[in-house]
Amino acid sequence: MPGRIPDNVIDDILNRVDIVEIISGYIPLKKAGRNFRANCPFHNEKTPSFMVSADKQIYHCFGCGTGGNVFNFLMQYERLEFSEAVALLAKKTGVALPQFSRHDPQSSDTSTQLLKINELTADFYANNLNSPSSQAAKDYLLKRGLKPEIISLLKLGFAPDSWDSLIAYLRSKDLKLSTLEKAGLVLSKTSGGFYDRFRKRIIFPVFDIKSRVIAFGARVLDNTLPKYVNSPETPIYVKGRNLYGFHLAKDAIRREDFTVIVEGFLDFIFPYQEGFQNIVASQGTALTMDQIRLIKRYTHNVVMVYDSDTAGQLATLRSLDMFIDEGMNVKVVPLPQGLDPDSFVRKFGIIEFRRKISAAQDLFEYKLSALKLKHSIDSTQGKAKIAAEMLITIGRITNAILKSEYTRKLSQELGVSQESVLEELKKVQQVRGYEQVIPTAEKISAPDINPTERLLIKLMLEEKSFLKDIKRKISPSDFQDERTSRIVSKIFDCIDQGKTVETSALINYLGDDSLSQMICQSTFLPEVSMQHKEKVIDDCIRRLKLNRLKLRKVSLQREIKKAQDMGDEGKLNSLMHEFQFLVKGV
């Protein structure tokens, strides 16, 4: 959204929105005194350290240090720009946003521009699917059992057998070829010029979590290779960060508290059409940590459904260990030979598919079965190889009871003592001791703030009736930490402008993540008794002023020595006079 959103509009949104309601829509919050507590959604933790204040309308995690107001949460959780978070909450709260002048697509920011181009492209291909010349493509989809409603919902389309039909259409919209290339829709010729990337293929638009078209997959109608051609990565599309169909499935995933993960577009589409809605597709690649963490926002329970061609690939199995690293529960459903989720549901129906899901094997059982097919359990070497692979998974489990049970099962399967399995497990864990699970958010060191300065900021934000008196007694320069000085300066600016100093609004006025974290950390300090607050404030002010004088004395002593060494009598006398004045004052 072009233009700067006025502070009064931001304040209006903050006055109408409830951060507890918004955050509880993403993660479960539990009452903890006057606040709410949860496991932090931004890093992996087992003891809840993520706090939300209904009074201050802010959040803070004591584990990773992240914190802010409702805009910060949405920006971090949904990966939104500030203007996008504002627009989302404005719509939710009924606040009208100013109408900024619209820019030509060529001068818009890159992301907005590429999203618009993709939307136009999806419409072009979808409209083309309904043209008489694309009847073969439409017949193919209908023959695969797809209904017109799902075709429309997913904006399935068809790229004509032409080298430049899309180019001609988008050029008619005054879009530059260089921008189409940036969107991954055209390729350059060695002889000069461009041609359409997708030709004579069914088009599957790929949506992000906000239902925006960010990329495309394209499938042939016959057995021509390659079967699929996909968009390259672009400024708005990183394949490993998205799951096909997630924009449609996310509510069902939260409601059912588990998701099924399949591979291809049609593996998602047909089961979803038949009523199985908590399902997503990885688009044919091994899962990434970003995709796993996207799922983790909505559920901790996953069922992987593989077709028989890939179920035995141990490299893919190893990627499932990442679910364990993230504290999630993962099960696996192997399908009969020659069937994938799409063909299985078409052949046996959605009820049988649900039965398969209900009977899913846990990762331990499935991985062990796959390894026994690959390595002979009757040979010593085979047992050693199976144990080595299985212990990689077992070593990631943090629950001591589960770990003990799995080592017991493994020893029984291999016909060896549990002690020997545990001994090998220790070796695996010693090696893994050097590995670090990639955190969802960088560990943010708790800002090293002077405790007195931090406490005074907390009290200034809590007791607004004292603010004018505090402003008379102390100045931002009395704060030694440049960051706390900036916070206090902004608070005093608000007083001068007649603004009410609300914590969540102050975070926006400052516009600095590190300052937001300091404010949130200070706010969640232990409560001070109301009858003692005025005395505590006076004590804080006295300490800060005293500390400032002491620091100035130390600085003067250094300057005096320097003036003596340089023989600068005039400066020396001036410094000595100031030093004597401070000594008397202190």
Mean pLDDT: 84
Structural class: alpha+beta
Largest sheet: 5 strands, antiparallel
Which class of the largest domain in CATH terms? Mainly Alpha
Strand content: 5-15%
Q: Could you give me the name of the CATH homologous superfamily of the largest domain?
A: DNAb Helicase, Chain A
Name the overall outline.
Answer: globular
**Second CATH tier, the architecture of the largest domain:** Orthogonal Bundle
Number of strands: 16
* Share of helical residues: 40-55%
CATH topology of the largest domain: DNAb Helicase, Chain A
The rounded Rg comes to 31 Å
Q: Strands of the largest sheet, in order across it?
A: 1-2-3-4-5
Structure characteristics:
single chain; alpha+beta; DNA Primase, Chain A; DNA primase DNAg catalytic core, N-terminal domain; Dna Topoisomerase Vi A Subunit, Chain: A, domain 2; five-stranded antiparallel sheet; five-stranded mixed sheet; 26 helices; 52% helix
What does this structure look like?
By secondary structure, the chain is an alpha+beta fold. The chain has 5 domains: 7-93, DNA Primase, Chain A (Alpha-Beta Complex); 108-237, DNA primase, catalytic core, N-terminal domain (DNA primase DNAg catalytic core, N-terminal domain, Alpha-Beta Complex); 241-361, Dna Topoisomerase Vi A Subunit, Chain: A, domain 2; 375-432; 451-585, Orthogonal Bundle (DNAb Helicase, Chain A), CATH 1.10.860.10. The radius of gyration is 31 Å and the shape is globular. Mean pLDDT is 84; it is low at 101-108 and 433-447.
